[in-house]
Amino acid sequence: MSKARPKSKLDIGLSFRKTSCNDLKLWYASGEIPRSPGVTSPGPQFTPLIEIAVKAKHLRANLRNRFRESINGSKLAILSRKIRCLLCHNTFKFSLFLLLLTACFPIFRKKNLLTDVLLPEAKPLSFLFPQNVKLENIPFQPRDPSNVTSIILHSTEKRKAADYIRLSIENKFMIHILVDKFGVVYADPEFLKKTFLASPGLDDVSIHVAYEGTQENVLTNQIQYNSIRNLIAQLTEDISIPKSNEDIISKKGIFTHNQAKRRFGGFVDFSMCGGEKLIQTVLADIHGNFYDEDHWKDRYESGWVLKKENKQKLQESFKPTNGRGITKAVKTAIPSIEKDESGFPIESYRVRYTHRGRINPTCIVLHYTAIPDYFNSLKTLENRNLTATLMVDKDGKAYQLVDELEERAAAATGTNDNCIQIEIVAKDTAELIAQVNQTEKVKSLVIELASKYKIPLTNEDITSYSGIFSHTQAKKKWGGSIFLNAKDFDPGEEYMELILNSIGGKYFTETNWRNRDGLDWAILSRNFQP
Ligand SMILES: [Zn+2]
Question: Can you give the pTM of this predicted structure?
């Protein structure tokens, strides 16, 4: 009997289930109905079940014996043997029939799009994996194969195929297909059904194809080139992917990873991953259409993480509505800004700009001009149809560029709707730190603005739009700059630390920025990307 002391009906049931069959037989033989301790009357629901089960068993045995006796030596026995023989033969034939049937109708098969239909020659991608890693353990999001509309081309550059795959695994990325330098195609058999992380923004609709080496290697390696070209020709035909790299915004076509990063971000490094020259050659070879960067659809419109500006177009379209000599600024609202004898910002130091609305400031973004001169910096802003709210000259004087502090300044993508933008004149971070009077002025400005607009003195969470941030932090989050470099720091984290810590704020290093490991950053925090 069970050691437990069951109380409810459920407990009694459980205790019965735990007892062995032999126990039940013994109880039956002894005429005793099993009951649990503490249960006074036998459970009536169990009695008939036990009786019926045992009686039925006896009955079946009796019938079997009587049937064997009755047919022993009779015609029936011979017939029975014949039937069994026939069955034996027909089982084989029937199996054959079933096999043919299932082969003819794909519905009976386990669908394997790679080996059966698309890439019969390919070897499993897992052949390139380190010994202790299995394909099943690589994380992916399931997808509907009919959603796949693009191919993204990657290059392993100087890395060998197996190293490239190993590093991808270590950094939680993966690609679907790889063509090695011998032209051998390796593929994940389920590549159409799996979304792998390789190029955020496009992963859910893309087949990631990598090739071993650089595009120059491939263009001088006929075997590998043919293999890549045939693969792309076949995939574009079979999955109806446009043979064109024109429109990455539509996510339809064949693109290099380089192009994908420029539109959607998700950068780790700035390699020309995929190779424009190679894609040009392949597209020409398979009667597709190649477009160079200047002719990618809407390349000069906004929306690209890595902007491209057309100087001529910018100058032609620049029709300033506000600023120096056009509109009158209101009186300066904080003491640290230079003013004339009537209390207005110094007109000749202001910028001409396009009015872009007003904001309720909740944050400040610091920039350095990378140009060591005030008026050249001002001219550069105007040439690019941009503006900051304030600019601090090398001598430590701060000027208001726009009409009011609440005018929306266009200076750092993602933050312009919320933050006051301060440009600081210097050619680099070292010069910034050396300019002591200027640094003191920047501190005063930050203190006065933070007090006026209740802005916390911290750089922890840029997505909160609440705090004091570097332009680089904004670039890493939202991109939108023509100068986008994973290594650059504008105005320099060293400078940010100096400012925040010396005014009683709290400085956070990059690894401690809120959610820095997330995938929704223009520049990801990884060491490698396929
Ligand atoms: Zn890539």
Answer: 0.74
